[in-house]
Design brief:
By secondary structure, this protein is of the alpha+beta class. The protein has 2 domains: 115 residues, MutM-like, N-terminal (N-terminal domain of MutM-like DNA repair proteins), CATH 3.20.190.10; 125 residues, Orthogonal Bundle (Helicase, Ruva Protein, domain 3), CATH 1.10.8.50. The protein is built from 5 helices and 10 strands; from the N terminus they run αββββββββααααββ.
Length: 271
Amino acid sequence: MPEGDTLARIAAVIGRDLARQTVTSARGRPGGARLDRVVGHSVESVEVRGKHLLVGFSNGLTLHTHLALHGSWHRYRKGERWRRSPTRAVALIETETSVAVCFDAPTVELIETRALDIHARLTRLGPDIAREDFDLDAAVAALRDPSRARATIGDALLDQRGVAGLGNVYRSELCFLERLDPFTPVEEVSGAVLRRLLGRGSRLVRTNSAGGARVTTEAGTPGTLYVYGRTGRPCRRCGTIVKTAVARAFSGANPRRVYWCPSCQPVHPKN
């Protein structure tokens, strides 16, 4: 699932090409969002909230997409051949020079911009870790909520109601960087560790939003990631074989695979 930095890059590309341009053609999937309603109007804004992308138009409507596991946005020049089948397109926005196409996203809706402040999914999001003004205190407080006390820290980091914008790569990498077993209950993680973990996460997500390969490793370390996707390979820090497991999702989200080093991230470390 695309994480906050990936969405930020998508927004930057779409915003650069479509902002203030008049929409000449637009459509959604058959029976889906009536994007023909924005034809003749201009793109006023492209923003990200957690893992949600919002494209605002001058007629007071906003296109809301959530990519989930398999969705993606592509940008093409006018007339350029698409890299995916048109049958997989769920939203298309075209101007005189550019085409933005969303493929395979399960959430595609056109809503009134003024309704964003009462949107059921958007209003439940926690502090957005990708924002310059990320509220670290509010994020720590959200993870400290009694409802998450028995959740594992790895699962809590994926709960967008606590902190928005983190995904499976960052939860594995951040736990490794803080030498924190991802299966540790949140109530056993100190406030100081939570602050370090989320503060580092915010810095990494914002840095990686600028483009290029996603990097969580420190300068001089081979590779770009420490443990994510490295099952059965040696830990970059200590050489121990990296482990993986499908973690039960306390938050109700789909179970996801987590990666960790059993030596660098001992069970129930002293925090």
